[in-house]
Amino acid sequence: MRSKAVRHAGRCIGLVALTGVPMLAPGLAQAQEVRTGLIASTGLSVETNPYNASDSSNAEFAANAELRPSLTVQDALTQVSIRGSAQFRQFLHRYGLEDNYSVDAEIVSKRSERVTLRGSGLFAYSEGGFAGYGRPGLIASDPLNSSPVDPAATTPDTSLQNSLNGITDVNLIGTRTRLTSLASNVGVDYLLSPRSSLSADFNARALRYQSALGSDYNTLGGELRFSHQFDEYLSVGVIGGYDRTNYLDPNQGDAGVISALLSVDRKFGERWSASVALGASFTNIDGRLGQPDTHFTALTGRVRFCRQGEFTRFCVAGDRSPQPSINGNVRVTTNINADYSWTLAARQRLTLSAAYARTGSSHSQILTDPAVDFATGTARYDNDFNKKLTGFVSASVSKIYSSIAPRTANISGAIGIQVHLGNPQ
User: How far apart are CA 298 and CA 243, in angstroms?
Assistant: First the structure.
């Protein structure tokens, strides 16, 4: 499995290079600034039910370590960012070693006064579903980017309307199976006039599960956005998209999703901002095993509210859209994330986070799986001993709600230190 993961990583990096290097060559040749950074963290954690078992009752201790290197190359026209992550959690008794890896690259190049090109790629090789989601984490969340990294999600988009990349499949949370994810995105922003813009994105992703219980799939999609800015506080727009999911299992019906949304972006003074996009999606799932095609319509939306204060930062974001599932079928997924950060003193911060996610029931006419809900809350305290060394303590609780099998909650805590090297900003 590890050799396969290395091959997948090479393919992902090659894909990013093929899509990004031709348009970056002029900018990289005259690069003016190079920034590197590394966040190294280590600590101890305790969890009561890390993998959402139905009968877990004993606390499990673990030693944790995480590395997050970053590299940014930038000149007046082009910026290239590469970020990596390696997470290790060694349990002392039952569960052994859990390790997760990811690397992502993003390219933004301004080709003229009107045209900006974008490209990005992601490789993730994880164990235990959403690593760190509802689990004791070593890296504090950023309230202005209030969503976790979901290896099943498309490479994060730079547009404001698509700023949330939360949970796309609750069924993945806590599963002790290897998940390999590859994703890429290519986009262009075109300035039609000083106040009007047009953006287009094309994305592709592939998910592979080590467990035979998972349904591997590939997804291709695109999105077109038009936005008009009335003044410095208000802009409106329209968003249209199409995604096609192809399951490798011939018994799983492939699905196409068409979405159409109206968007409004609004600033309220210097501190508050809101982004709302609401519309509908139309899904068609191909029939299998002699069954007819399945059609359904769903309310689709993306919502984000943020406040930036002098000593506080707050964001709440929500998303509702049809997404592929590990169990097969495209299902309507809803997720809401909220983060609040308060600077208590010059070197002390308190962060409160909460999230709710729901993967809807299956629309299959052969086998109907019920909806699954997930909720989590976390409190974290950070103390900067100096510019490079930070100590932290955190506590969290999370729980999956399913009618198939009851799951006990996972109550966890962590304590540790972080070392910041370089100058990533």
Answer: 15
